[in-house]
Amino acid sequence: MIEVKHLTKRYGSHIAVSDLSFSIEKGGIYGFLGPNGAGKSTTMNIVTGCLGATQGDVLLGGHNIFEEPRAAKRLIGYLPELPPLYTDMTPQEYLRFVMRAKGVPRSAWTRELSSAMDRTRIGDVKDRLIGNLSKGYRQRVGIAQALLGNPQVIILDEPTVGLDPAQIIEIRELIRELGAEHTVLLSSHILTEVQAVCDHIMILSHGRLVASDTADNLTRLFAGRTTLRLLVKAQQEDVRRVLETLDGVEAAGFGPDDPQEGTHVDITPRDDQDLREALFVRFAKANMPILEMVRERASLEDVFLELTQDAPSSEAQAGKNAEEKEEAQP
Description:
By secondary structure, the chain is of the alpha/beta class. It is built from twelve helices and 14 strands. Strands 6-7-8-3-9-10 form a six-stranded mixed beta sheet, sandwiched between helices.
């Protein structure tokens, strides 16, 4: 449905998007995850035709967004991070205006308007001024305009930013419903956001795609291995001596000594072996009771931190400022 080929966007010496390639199949919910300044909004603005690229191609349903913009944009419904709303209009007036702008046939207006308002549940505020609506309702109106014309692809940039917890839950549920009938691409820098609604996750860092898979696979493949956290009633040197006799221990990290509690140690098994029984037997034979043993597996947060741990440089921040300035221009 969407194919991005070697996409690059430069702002002076700063590279906001670097040789980015990915493809999105029809159906399902795809998520761009990355820290602020990773290139998520820039990529989405290029994919939707709102921003030019330095090089590369973007195909939507086989149409090149740069060479066939009208044909490509007919397939897209887009909600930017700041919804393009006119606060002196009512939702009903605004959606009619959008239908005219999109070229929706007048014969389909009643059906399109009713469908968009029903799916986003804004019918009860359709005659109130948008300027008087809550942030959550404004976001719903923004999603409603993206649905007009029944596009195959819905693109949402930070769809829950600034919402309260109840509103976030409502918008997430709406996104799940949209994923049943459309291909949805959303961006977020919030881990729980992407994990809660997305079938497939793409992690960006400094304009590059560093990972692309399901949340479960990313956790298993990128975040490393299981860690065993032990509290042993013994001195650190004695604990170290016992661990040296176990072939399955790849690494051991010791916490500060605590004369009253014992020794805290984090053990990384080799090849993700299950060492719990072997550890119990060895320490029991050495007369060193294990007071605590916790087995921890890496989370999506660990994956995210591992893949995006380098902080943006001052040059990158300067480039981001230039990017924001360009995107703000009409």
